[in-house]
């Protein structure tokens, strides 16, 4: 039903779902983002149908509908615990959700354009977002506050990644791909 690929020396593992798992029962339109919880039991996805859903990874059974973004939701990501979800949308809002009861615990506001990608720093004390407004922001989850802004890059920041070993930050814009 799944394949687990791991490298114990690096303390890294990835679980791939069985190929027969289908998502047509979860969303009616194209999936824009998808993530699997660290334990592999749950999935979260967003779609061009304007929905964000949490579902059982084994069979696609929908567990929760997460509602609260005004427009399309572009990105979703589980926190390492697998109990919390981070999402960013075209409404320029970054939200933290409970995967257990679908409640929105925190809404971060500060971007002036749609959020295009997110990243979780370490275990989730801080999160990152990047936006069509040309900025990336670092947020403190506990204080619900913006800790810093990487100023206007001159074009949308489409992607963001955090290095596992040193928490280095990588941004991608149309003019410059993230460094390797």
Automatic annotation (TrEMBL):
<dbReference type="InterPro" id="IPR001680">
    <property type="entry name" value="WD40_rpt"/>
</dbReference>
<dbReference type="InterPro" id="IPR015943">
    <property type="entry name" value="WD40/YVTN_repeat-like_dom_sf"/>
</dbReference>
<keyword id="KW-0677">Repeat</keyword>
<dbReference type="GO" id="GO:0000502">
    <property type="term" value="C:proteasome complex"/>
</dbReference>
<dbReference type="Pfam" id="PF00400">
    <property type="entry name" value="WD40"/>
</dbReference>
<feature type="repeat" description="WD">
    <location>
        <begin position="108"/>
        <end position="140"/>
    </location>
</feature>
<dbReference type="InterPro" id="IPR051179">
    <property type="entry name" value="WD_repeat_multifunction"/>
</dbReference>
<keyword id="KW-0647">Proteasome</keyword>
<comment type="similarity">
    <text>Belongs to the WD repeat PAAF1/RPN14 family.</text>
</comment>
<protein>
    <submittedName>
        <fullName>PAAF1 factor</fullName>
    </submittedName>
</protein>
<dbReference type="InterPro" id="IPR036322">
    <property type="entry name" value="WD40_repeat_dom_sf"/>
</dbReference>
<feature type="repeat" description="WD">
    <location>
        <begin position="66"/>
        <end position="107"/>
    </location>
</feature>
<dbReference type="InterPro" id="IPR020472">
    <property type="entry name" value="WD40_PAC1"/>
</dbReference>
<feature type="repeat" description="WD">
    <location>
        <begin position="24"/>
        <end position="65"/>
    </location>
</feature>
<keyword id="KW-0853">WD repeat</keyword>
